[in-house]
Structure formats: structure tokens, C-alpha cells
């Protein structure tokens, strides 16, 4: 297992390296367990003043979780998927409340599980190649790993847009939306890590900020979002679709049509469940959101669209999923409500 994730200490800096570059550093259960164990140890170790997480290989921070394992576990009816989600979600909560500075170097691809390892920490460092997305609805799933908590807090329109369409953001937008709160050019990341290791970090944010201020640059200003983004600021999913369909203006119509086409390729049931999860997550605290996400994840093991989505996108790669409901109008709202049925066992946090 140890080759999948590596741990080193440089001065007072603990460094975690996700080390599955051929798999774009996608997470496994063992990686989550090992990361949890070292983070708990470092949190109570006075010799460690901050923790930095990075991805090996240069292409990705972390592109998600092991969806083939989740697919196979669900098909087999075994406990592997549940063990993964329980471990991963408890780790997300640990990151959210970590006592020491937690620095994620989100250069390259950061999607799905990689988002959960980064956005809940205090310092998210974008590089030149950052590419962010929550594309779960495309595999008949929903934006988990705390996505139902942090996406609504970007603003309802932006959160719904990202969570429903799987839109991809590059460095400038990631910084503008606050998904990253620091931009450091990629060719300075190694020097930044070296400087942190030499800084005598003391477990407080100030000592990290004393270093980071010498490396931070202003990213480019991204183009403004079109006015049609307001279509995602609606109370129901059908209203979002209707608003996008109605916008045929010269200024916004092309963008609106593109977003509509993105969603029309997603699982209609997953869109409904994701919209409702985001709506609820907007008023939940972090742990309430994570408990809801565990319920949803376990219930998705009974939803055919998840297995069909993974098959079409990752296994057969024909990109032609056959969703259970052909359109929003065909979705049985009882199926949406059933997805939110509480699980028998609650998520255990690492107190």
C-alpha cells in the first residue's frame, strides 16, 4: 500500500504526496486510511508546524476516487464501497477542522475526491495548470466529498451550475470563486515547499503566511460569467431548465444552450438528487452535510444509473449511457425521495 501515498518531513513541514500518477492520483481506501493516520499523528506532534498535500506526476493533484471499485462493490453487494465512503468522508471532516495549517497544492486536475482533499482546508494553492470540476452527475452520481456543503456557499447560482453541469474551471476562475485562495506559478511550487521547510513553522497560520507572501502572484482576471448564470438561481430544477431554454438572446443564448446540452447528457435522476442535496446542504453544517452524503452514497448503490454511468464513462468508454429516465419529466419523484432515506448506521467522525 505504501507506494500509493508517501509521507516526508522537511523541517517542521509534514508533506503528503498522493503517488498514483498513472491513475491521476485517484484515491483508494488504503490511501485515505494512511492519510488519516498520519494527519492525526502530526496534529498532536509539536515538531510539525503545518501539513502540505500534493500530487505526484505533474498532471493531477487528484482526479477523484476509485469508481470502478465502487461499481464492482455495488454489483457484488459487498462492503468495500461503504468502507471507502466512511473512511473518505471522515477524512474530509478531519481536513475541515484540522488544527494546524493545511496546504493543498491543487495544480493539474482536481476533481471529485481531490476536491474533498483540498477545498475544506485553510490554504488552497492553485498553479498554472489547475483544472477543477465536480463531474459526478455524468456518471449518474452526485457531488459528494463535501460538495453539497461547499458548492452552495459559492452562491446558489454558481454552486448549482458547477454541481449540475460538471463545468470545468481553470486557474483564474478557481481563484476568482475562492475555490483556491492563493495562486503561485507552478514553477515556484518546489521553491515554496523548500521555503516552508526552512521557516520554523509553529502550527499557526502566521508563520505560513510569512512565507507564502513572497510567492503569491495575481492570476489573470477571468472573463465575467454571462448574465444567463442567473438561470441556475432558481428554486426547482425544472425552473433552471426552463430559464435556460427561454434564453435565446444574442448575448447569452449560446452559453445557455451549451449548459442545457451538458445537463441533457447527464442522468436526469442524478440531477434531481444533486439539486435537492445542494438545496439542503446550503442550510446544513459540515457534519450534517457529510451525514447526508453517506446516506446518499449508500442509496446510490440501489440506483441503476450509477452503474450505467460508470460503465459508459470508465469501463466500456462508449460515452453512451442509457439512463433509467429519459428526461426530467420521466423521473419518478418517489425515487428522489428514496435516495435521502437515512442509512442504518451514522457516519463516525474522528473526534
Rg computed from alpha carbons, rounded to a whole number of angstroms: 20 Å
| SSE ordering | EEHEEHHEEHEEHHEHEHHHHHHHH
Residues in β-strands, percent: 5-15%
Low-confidence stretches: none
What top-tier CATH class of the domain at 2-130 and 180-212 fits best?
A: Alpha Beta
CATH topology of the domain at 2-130 and 180-212: 2-enoyl-CoA Hydratase, Chain A, domain 1
Average pLDDT, to the nearest integer?
95
> What structural class do the secondary elements suggest?
alpha/beta
Helical stretch tally: 15
In which order are the strands of the major sheet placed? 1-2-3-5-7-10
CATH homologous superfamily of the domain at 2-130 and 180-212 - what is it?
Answer: 2-enoyl-CoA Hydratase, Chain A, domain 1
Query: What general outline do the C-alpha atoms trace?
Result: globular
